[in-house]
Design brief:
By secondary structure, the chain is mainly alpha-helical. It has 4 helices and no strands. Helices cover about 80% and strands about 0% of the residues. The chain is elongated. The mean pLDDT is about 90.
Length: about 70
């Protein structure tokens, strides 16, 4: 793994946390060191096998489902 790959993996991990907190894709990109939303989206998709928007939606749905289970 190259240094750039290592740094990008770290940034994507932090971006996942940002997206789980409800930040927009643009906020997650810029907060975590990406200067371009398109570069962030491509890098994120390569690492996570889904777009940042899809990840954000997936996490949101999973949280909603777990909240529904707690209420039962």
């Amino acid at each position: 793994m190259s240094f750039t790959e290592f740094v990008n993996d770290f940034r994507i991990g932090k971006a996942c946390q940002s997206l789980r907190r409800g930040e927009t894709v643009a906020e997650a990109a810029f907060t975590n060191g990406f200067n371009s939303i398109s570069h962030f989206s491509v890098t994120f998709a390569k690492r996570m096998n889904m777009s940042p928007s899809a990840y954000r939606l997936k996490v949101s749905r999973e949280e909603k489902e777990s909240e529904d289970l707690v209420l039962c």
